[in-house]
Amino acid sequence: MNLYPIRCTLPWVILALDFSAPALADELTEQNISMQDLPPAVAKTMQSELGNNKAEEVEKISYEGIVVLYEAEYYQGGNEYEVHVYPNGELAARHSHDAEQEQEEEGR
Q1: By C-alpha distance, which of 61, 108, 104 is closest to 82?
Q2: Distance CA 81, CA 96 (A)
Q3: Is 11 part of any domain?
Q4: Domain that holds residue 43
Q5: What is the mean predicted confidence (pLDDT) over 14-39?
Q6: Distance of CA 53 to the CA centre of its chain
Q7: Three-class SS state of 8
Q8: Distance CA 87, CA 51 (A)
Q9: Is residue 36 in a domain?
């Protein structure tokens, strides 16, 4: 069996993977902003989702400098809620966490 093709190709495959790994782990950044800094469409959706609740934290989430999501966190009835909205104002997701359970997990 001739191993020459494998021996010649394998270093190039390893080298290609080595250079592509940083591209796979590009930076996702989160920046704290205020509700007033939200684009109008995003602010409208956020306010609709928050209702009478006050956002404790609002973040702009970017990937390689491009805004991909906006996130707002608020508390109601012992639970933490998160609302995620796309830059075009469309609701991406909303979910809740039990704040007491989350604090216990962080204390472990």
Answers
A1: 61
A2: 4
A3: no
A4: 26-107
A5: 70
A6: 22
A7: helix
A8: 20
A9: yes
Q: What is the CATH number of the domain that holds 98?
A: 3.10.450.360
Q: Measured in whole angstroms, how far is the alpha carbon of residue 94 from the centre of its chain?
A: 13
E strands of the chain, at which residues?
28-33, 57-63, 66-76, 79-85, 91-98
Per the structure, the count of domains in the chain is 1
pTM of the model: 0.67
Both tokens assigned to 84: 């995620």
pLDDT of residue 10: 41
Specify whether the CB–CB gap between 22 and 67 falls below 8 A.
no
Please give the structure tokens belonging to residue 89. Answer: 């104002």
- Cα→Cα distances 16→3, 19, 24, 34, 78, Å: 20, 5, 12, 42, 50
Residue 108's identity, in one-letter code, is R
User: pLDDT by residue (tens digit) across 61-95?
Assistant: 998 888 899 999 999 888 899 999 999 999 999 98
